[in-house]
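Researcher: Let's do a round of design. I'm pasting the structure tokens now; please hold your answer until I've finished.
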């Protein structure tokens, strides 16, 4: 919440490409901006790689889908499609993401709703309350006598990995320079994203840890946990699992696209201030996009 509010304030005050890299330059100097920019670029590269590479495991849950080529070549094709889409224009890129996001949010809300209804139907009220109590107990960290409790170093490692998901807030700030009314639309977008993330993350996590144990999620469904949640429900494997497979793939496609948008705007801004070679500060003569970056 604090991170989002900070980004909302700074993006409205300094509506330009660069995000945290730009904020650091205004607040401190070019050296701090250079370090911030390269750290962000690493975040974006990791986000794009994780997201694009994880699309194929989810598509395995879709009937009749057969990956005709290897996992890595398929990932490269996904990235090539995203690259072409982003060179054509930001409107085309963001419209595709918007449609997929609407589908994703609707499906995740459906999974949360079905999951809670299913749990309440198969349990007596006292069993349901007991299950919620067990869920609360399983949130304890550093317990040595149980298998499900992570150590504190494992917990912080998990937090660090989970924070990659919030790079989308940075991507929004990167587009402030291309928004029509950034002082109004950018903070609204960030606050809407924050509330949506909170509801979906909390809901999915609750349903997941109620339907499956942490051990099942991290072994049998390590690469596609959402599909595991769907498969644990009645008719899940037959009906929900393929749908959720498509959901997981589209979420990851949108995440890779957001990473590519953010990374390109970041390198464009760094090229403007010679924190990268000046060649990155180029706009396509026809499409008006930072095609080199």
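Researcher: That's everything. Go ahead.
Model: Designed sequence:
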């Amino acid at each position: 919440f604090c991170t989002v509010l900070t980004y909302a304030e700074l993006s409205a005050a300094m509506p330009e490409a660069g995000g945290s890299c730009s904020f650091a330059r205004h607040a401190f100097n070019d050296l701090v901006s250079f370090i911030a920019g390269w750290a962000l670029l690493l975040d974006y590269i990791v986000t794009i790689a994780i997201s694009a590479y994880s699309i194929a495991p989810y598509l395995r849950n879709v009937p009749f889908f057969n990956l005709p080529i290897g996992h890595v070549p398929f990932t490269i094709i996904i990235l090539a499609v995203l690259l072409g889409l982003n060179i054509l224009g930001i409107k085309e890129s963001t419209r595709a993401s918007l449609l997929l996001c609407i589908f994703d949010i609707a499906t995740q809300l459906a999974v949360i709703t079905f999951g809670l209804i299913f749990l309440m139907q198969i349990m007596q009220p006292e069993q349901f309350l007991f299950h919620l109590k067990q869920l609360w107990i399983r949130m304890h960290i550093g317990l040595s006598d149980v298998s499900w409790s992570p150590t504190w170093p494992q917990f912080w490692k998990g937090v660090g990995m989970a924070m990659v998901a919030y790079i989308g807030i940075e991507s929004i700030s990167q587009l402030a320079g291309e928004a029509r009314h950034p002082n109004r639309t950018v903070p609204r977008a960030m606050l809407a994203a924050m509330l949506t993330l909170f509801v979906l993350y909390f809901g999915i996590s609750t349903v997941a840890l109620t339907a499956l144990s942490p051990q099942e999620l991290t072994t049998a469904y390590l690469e596609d946990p959402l599909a595991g949640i769907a498969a644990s429900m009645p008719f899940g494997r037959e009906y929900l699992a393929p749908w959720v497979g498509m959901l997981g793939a589209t979420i990851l496609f949108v995440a890779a696209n957001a990473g590519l948008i953010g990374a390109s705007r970041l390198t464009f801004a760094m090229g403007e201030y010679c924190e990268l070679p000046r060649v990155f500060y180029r706009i396509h003569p026809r499409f008006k996009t930072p095609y080199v970056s």
